[in-house]
Design goal:
The structure is a homodimer. Chain A is of the alpha/beta class and about 400 residues long. Chain A is about 50% helix and about 15% strand. Chain A contains 15 helices and 8 strands. In chain A, strand 6 and strand 7 form a beta hairpin. Chain A is globular, with a radius of gyration of 20 Å.
Chain lengths: ~400, ~400
């Protein structure tokens, strides 16, 4: 196990009805709230009305920032920062999925940024020291943003989508019933995202991380078990609750305790797809992941041991032929994504090869993929994109 | 899954050499440090000298409280509180295992306690709001005190040993090399303690806690794998690191996310053994656990499903006969404790039955064992103690 330094300051309020704690949580920070949300879903499920009533009854002054995009844009961050400054906001309340929470994290930090260009702040987010307190109400099990300090912000003008760390939520209200109305497609995409968060750390050269690996395997087993149930029975509390808890634990850092930092190659590649084509993050990951797996197995067949480990501990495979098991594992994952209804090629999304070369350059600039489980060059990334067609 | 509210504010510095962060961590709180430790082991391994040199070079004013007992006494808490007040201590630095950290938690809270009787504070610890910052350097993988807010304090005069929540460590330095010198016996006892922390929450009526159960099973598998290695090769870093990480995760609350609160029956019973006979906590747990398991299987054979689940997922048992598998599970656990060198009866510790009846009354007063996985009466507890002879 490698050394690590870690803490998770976020307080989680998990379960049905935990919104009852909302005004108590917010009140500790002040009365002026920036309420951030995305499109219509929080209104459709009645959550917007419920939150507004609670805030009104609690005597909060509410400023709203709506329309935060699925791949949140730097322009939304700019709007939010301006609103916070104009209205002397005390605390941000993000109601939504990872995109809304991510955007709100960048806003929370941006309020204290002294420069004039917030995209520069995103690029250099490591130097940020301070942020407004952020509380969120989660409505999608996917990104884990409710339980980490990371956020991914997109600049469509420059075709950049950058993942950086900004601030942890002070509190996350995680009520699985808010995900009952999530579509089958988004449930599947969110599940692919959770699984990818695990794969990215699991596939690592570190061999003595028994505890972290076991926790990672548990998250995978949980998602593989409950994603199909949530799709078949959208209001199955057990399924939605386990997926929501898996989303948080996957990004908690715990499944990577003591492990090599890999640069998260599929995320690096997917961020380029989203930056160029604005696709759903989890869908891009579901397409990329099996291709990346096959590519690294070809490039370094010795890495099959990790796949075999996943096969034994997650899929119940047996035997000694690690190369054969690795193939079975990749096929099983590919098949899982197909079974839950996700696209299996970029062609299905009408994406061609015209930008692959520049996307590969960007992906390799943004993450140190020369330090990945199987190190990847820009040419490797281009090849993987082509395999996804 | 049941509702829960949870956060873990402790910052963990895990791995070899993390003591390099010590003065930076302490310095954030002030210069006046109460250094707490137990007997000779921190001096024997050179850690005391290393810490004192760092504190001296860093310009800290150090007050010492040494001799903290394996089952820390209220008298040590009283001494520590007095020293903190007399020396206007800014931060407590606990160097040792769970007992030293536990005692230091009670001291940290006791400094702000306005009453005159610190045992009353322990009894009513739930009402405590404030504590001095506490930093620890862990030297034993066992209690998980480095990653939770709990502490167990003993009053030998009244034969009471009470587990209460006081405060989380602000930071825990978890360097597995500090456990290289832990004896085989204490390594085994610490491992039994970690396993018991898992058993206490795992054996629960909650049936839809797939994620938490999987994490619990992972901790068990980790301890079962690495405890014998650490005993055979005391300086095996992989084994010591996985045990230390398992110790923290076992008590993190995460393995119990969404699960019924069970009252932790074996801990309730063991605290009485320690309060009356001052035995090693993990040894008491290793004796009690298989007897408690057999008792609840007799009392409510329908609870065998949970044992079978453990058998399948941790021990790799197969088959459909859940009652038979439950028996196999208990024997396997009993055998594991025996194999790693732990006593298997109270007689071996020269403990007779003379106090069983009153111990059972106390145990049932201190925890709500009528809400346990299989509810237990005072007579049941007495019977379990007798089974341990």
């Amino acid at each position: 196990m490698l050394n690590y330094i870690h803490s998770i300051p976020t307080q989680v309020f998990f379960g049905k009805g935990q919104i009852s704690h909302l005004t108590g949580i917010l009140g500790a920070y002040g009365k002026r709230v920036l309420l951030t949300y995305g499109g219509g879903s929080v209104k459709r499920i009645g959550l917007y009305d419920e939150v507004m009533k609670l805030l009104h009854d609690g005597g909060f002054e509410v400023t709203e920032l709506s329309g935060i995009e699925p791949n949140p844009r730097i322009q939304s961050v700019e709007k939010g920062v301006l609103l916070c400054r104009q209205n002397r906001i005390d605390v941000i309340l993000a109601v939504g999925g990872g995109s809304t929470i991510d955007c709100s994290k960048a806003i929370a930090a941006g309020v204290y940024y002294e420069g004039s260009d917030l995209w520069e702040m995103v690029r250099n987010a490591r130097s940020l020291q301070k942020a407004l307190p952020l509380v969120d109400i989660l409505t999608l099990s996917a990104t884990g943003s409710e339980y980490d300090s990371g956020a991914v912000i997109t600049n469509l003008d420059t075709h950049e989508k950058l993942g950086r760390t900004f601030t942890y939520p002070a509190a996350s209200i995680c009520d699985p019933t808010y995900t009952f109305s999530v579509s089958a497609y988004q449930t599947a995409a969110g599940s692919a995202d959770i699984m990818s968060h695990i794969f990215e750390g699991y596939f690592s050269e570190t061999q003595d991380s028994c505890l972290s690996d076991g926790i990672a395997e548990t998250v995978l087993k949980t998602v593989i078990r409950y994603c199909p149930i949530a799709i078949a029975k959208p209001d199955n509390y057990e399924a939605r609750a386990n997926l929501m808890s898996a989303s948080s634990i996957a990004c908690s850092g715990i499944p990577e305790y003591g492990k090599q930092r890999t640069g998260w190659p599929c995320h690096a590649m997917e961020h380029e797809l989203s930056a160029y084509y604005d696709i759903t993050h989890g869908v891009g990951l579901a397409i990329l992941t099996p291709r990346w797996m096959r590519f690294i197995l070809r490039k370094n067949p010795a890495c099959a041991w990790r796949f075999a480990m996943l096969g034994r501990n997650v899929l119940g495979l047996t035997g000694e032929d690690e190369a054969g098991m690795a193939e079975q594992v990749v096929s099983a994952i590919e098949n899982f994504f197909h079974t839950v209804g996700l696209p299996s090629s970029l062609r299905e999304l009408k994406i061609g090869s015209e930008h692959f070369a520049e996307m590969a350059v960007h992906a390799n600039q943004n993450e140190r993929l020369s330090h990945a489980f199987v190190p990847l060059t820009t040419d490797d990334l281009t090849a993987i994109y082509h395999d996804c067609l």
